[in-house]
Design a protein that fits this description.
With 519 residues, the chain is an alpha+beta fold. It folds into two domains: 327 residues, no CATH class; 144 residues. 16% of the residues lie in helices and 38% in strands. It has eight helices and 31 strands. Strands 7, 12, 14, 15, 16, 24, 26, 27, 29 and 30 form a ten-stranded mixed beta sheet that branches. Strands 6, 8, 10, 11, 13, 17 and 18 form a seven-stranded antiparallel beta sheet that branches. The protein has a five-stranded mixed beta sheet with strand order 2-9-5-4-3, with no helix packed on it. The radius of gyration is 31 Å and the shape is elongated.
């Protein structure tokens, strides 16, 4: 009996050891790395920080934490603001505005107070920045700011070309656009800063690691301003100079060329209020030309402009919403006040996969901009000289012909725009960009097309003919009449929202390659 009991204990022990070995073996099986990878992927997706919600259209006060001062929305009665009155009522979702970024919330106090809207019909990115009443600041005459694209893909993207250039040269891409604003830095005040962006068809292939925004704001004192030869101690408009980032250098000294055909900068106009303020420095004639551009643009007609955005006036939308670049000769000197940096946030750009984005992700993630061209347009030219009566005293008709090859490029519209709006009334015009006044006064000179006065320049526009014929009569001998330095293509069209909102007229001018025509 004892022997049987001992055998029974041995058997039980063996069974226990077998079970223990089997369970250990299961624990040593290969781990489910695929499942772990999925979990890691999910953790990456969740690492992007969503912005605080903001119902900006239907509130009187911005959301702020308990115990902090109340802040009116920027367009409210009683709000302290420094921006053009035409922008004050331009924020409605029906007109295309969507929220992209926001720091206002009721939970915590952010380092900086701002929110950012984007207009889907106009390609405008606008930042509303608030300087708290309790903020330490340095008094200054002006705010300067720059929106820049950064990282490896930045040099390949055309996104900043519309913001930085009045006439777009597709042979290079602008990395930033910078503006000297007329507004002073003040506590408890709202500022509205905006740039127009070009559509980049390659956005979906990018990510935060190789492409991002940086929006820098500083205070500055512009001490000496000369516009079109008129000196002023006060800036009366928003000034940009292509290729110049005012926020980088602690001081700047820009001298405009008095004899150059293309001036060195432009003034940004957001409505009639800006034109009236600029009259003392620009003069009545230039201001009247700008007013003609505003009136025509608000009716959907591009005239006296090379670059502009206009929301058409209608019975239900009578307000002015424009963004107009006026080329001008600018000279100015200034310093960054004690190098005072107001803010310099970095943003992920809407339009690409945000799963690799660290930090805040945009609330709107469709590609920005309305359109761009597939390639730089080509203009062909040829020259001939014919005598009407060969011999002494004959008159030579020296003829130059210019024709834009409309097959050398395509207009590429952003699908995010065409899904919510129709593109109508596309108009393509050839524009002779050089100053023609000296030739137009010569009775021996003739050129097809009609004059337009853009700022202080006279250009020639030839409608849908997409070309020019220039004839210069000369006695006794033929002459090689010099080529016009630049022939541009002005493209104008209407963006007609499908929701019934007021249409937007977009007008942009592009430089062309000049190539001799061969039969």
């Amino acid at each position: 009996m004892k022997k049987l009991f001992s055998l029974f204990k041995v058997a039980v022990l063996l069974v226990f050891l077998i079970l223990l070995w089997t369970s250990c073996k299961k624990e040593l099986q290969p781990m489910d790395t695929a499942g772990m990878n999925n979990d890691l992927k999910r953790s990456v997706v969740l690492s992007g920080v969503p912005i605080p919600p903001l119902d900006w259209e239907h509130i009187d006060y911005m959301p702020t934490p308990p115990g902090t001062p109340q802040v009116f929305v920027p367009w409210a009665s009683g709000a302290s603001r420094q921006f053009a009155p035409e922008l004050a009522d331009d924020y409605k979702t029906a007109d295309g505005w969507v929220l992209v970024y926001n720091t206002f919330n009721t939970t915590y106090t952010p380092d900086r107070w701002y929110f950012m809207l984007y207009n889907k019909f106009r390609g405008l990115l606008r930042m509303y920045y608030y300087i708290p009443a309790t903020a330490g600041f340095i008094p200054s005459r002006n705010i300067i700011h720059a929106l820049a694209v950064e990282k490896g893909y930045a040099a390949s993207s055309p996104m900043m070309n519309f913001a930085d250039q009045e006439v777009i040269d597709m042979t290079y891409n602008s990395r930033s656009a910078s503006t000297v604003e007329q507004w002073q830095v003040a506590p408890g005040t709202w500022y509205a800063l905006q740039f127009e962006l070009a559509y980049d068809p390659q956005m979906s292939a990018q990510n935060f690691t190789n492409f991002s925004f940086n929006w820098t704001m500083r205070s500055a004192n512009v001490t000496d301003i000369v516009l079109e030869g008129t000196s002023s101690g006060t800036l009366t408009g928003s000034i940009s100079i292509p290729g110049t980032n005012f926020t980088v250098s602690p001081s700047f000294n820009i001298t405009g060329g008095s004899s150059t055909s293309v001036k060195n900068g432009f003034i940004v106009m957001n409505g009639s209020s800006d034109t009236e303020k600029a009259k003392p420095t620009l003069g009545t004639q230039i201001i009247n030309n700008i007013k003609t551009a505003l009136t025509s643009g608000l009716q959907g007609i591009a005239k006296n402009i090379l670059s502009g955005l206009f929301k058409k006036k209608t019975s239900t939308a009578p307000e002015e919403n424009v963004s107009l670049k006026i080329n001008t000769n600018i000279s100015l000197k200034g310093t960054l006040t004690d190098n005072f940096l107001i803010t310099s946030p970095v943003f992920a750009i809407p339009g690409y996969d945000q799963t690799a984005t660290t930090g805040v992700v945009p609330a709107y993630n469709q590609p920005l901009g309305v359109f761009y061209l597939s390639a730089k347009p080509i203009t062909y030219y040829r020259y001939s000289s014919i005598a009407d009566n060969p011999g002494i005293g004959s008159t030579y008709f020296n003829t130059q012909g210019y024709g834009v090859d409309t097959n050398s490029y395509r207009i590429i519209f952003n699908p995010a725009v065409t899904s919510i709006a129709d593109i109508r009334n596309i108009r393509t015009e050839a524009v002779a960009l050089d100053p023609l006044a000296q030739y137009l006064r010569d009775p021996n000179f003739s050129i097809s097309g009609a004059n337009e006065t853009i700022g202080d320049r006279v250009v020639r526009v030839n409608g849908n003919g997409i070309g020019f014929v220039i004839i210069y009569k000369k006695q006794y001998a033929p002459i090689d009449y010099p080529l016009l330095y630049d022939i541009g293509v002005r493209i104008t069209f209407d963006v007609v929202p499908k929701n019934g909102a007021a249409p937007v007229t977009v007008s942009k001018t592009f430089r062309t390659f000049m190539i001799p025509y061969e039969e």
